[in-house]
Amino acid sequence: METLRKNQGLLIVLSGPSGAGKGTVSAHLRERMPEITYSVSATTRPPRRGEKEGVNYFFKTRSEFEQMIANDELLEWAEYVGNYYGTPRRFVEEQLAEGRDVLLEIEVQGARQVRKRFPQGVFIFLIPPSLDELRRRIEQRGTESEEVVLNRLRRAEEELKEMNHYDYVVVNDRVEQASERLRSIIIAEHCRVERLLSGKTVSWGG
Amino acid sequence: METLRKNQGLLIVLSGPSGAGKGTVSAHLRERMPEITYSVSATTRPPRRGEKEGVNYFFKTRSEFEQMIANDELLEWAEYVGNYYGTPRRFVEEQLAEGRDVLLEIEVQGARQVRKRFPQGVFIFLIPPSLDELRRRIEQRGTESEEVVLNRLRRAEEELKEMNHYDYVVVNDRVEQASERLRSIIIAEHCRVERLLSGKTVSWGG
Prior knowledge:
Two copies of one chain form a homodimer. Helices cover about 40% and strands about 20% of the residues of chain A.
């Protein structure tokens, strides 16, 4: 009798260029799929209006953040436009071990590090419908100086070249649609034969 | 600038042991996703109650069917419990060329042939929640003699071993849920990087 592996927690990595809309799409998905664990990043960037400690980010000083790096407490980290961003490691590993799906919404540099440690993760690259739209979104955010906007745009163009290292590309034309595609990818990945038949198995129909 | 391939039609192959519920799930999916083309098989099996020519099957005599085999008009065919089943080839190829997704609901033998010709297809293996449930479903159909039922069950056990040649396994516990998983798989496959970046490309954001 064929055996099926018990569904294990998936590590879902949502990345893509700055301005692609990762935060908005991930917030929408959170409403749709409350059963997924959303990892909270640490950052040294100052809070934007409405952002809450422990919900959107853990806000850290530079020296606190560097201590976390030194203690190997971060699954990935990156310095991005002058600020540190990183993912506290232990929480993610605990959730996965308990069989829960965990979503990381992280920058492209960080995703590269996670891919080395968790090649079995599901890597999703979110892109805006066009470069013009990307510029519009970055400018509209209105919290950055013109120089930072230009920096981000140049970086975004570089980051788009990383697309082919991902498993999926999702175009963020409308948030609802992008979030529905993410949901589909997660459901589909749980049905993939190599996830169901590899490693520890449980009896099918037993 | 990175380029994205225009979404092409997917060949989706839904297979699995007799009694898994392929017909019911595929009918449910047809309601959910009317944009998908559902290939109609040819068969020499007599129509069951309510089945319509050209809708459920093209009903053929043995000699008509053997002529189609001789003319290479079938994408796949199999003899199964005394009857021929097959997929007319031209219709499928035309639909794919026009960019439409095509779903084939076929037996395990036939799926094996399609996999050789269309390795880029999406191969989904539908299974019942357990072997006991499979027996119940085959018996409940009530159109077969006890010998045929036993034949089908033995065959189904053999067929379950094919699971690892598929891309996805979908457990048919409830039809709505199985159909939703199929839908997710189709949406997800359209986002897969290797489908978007290989072959002919179109400009992204151009």
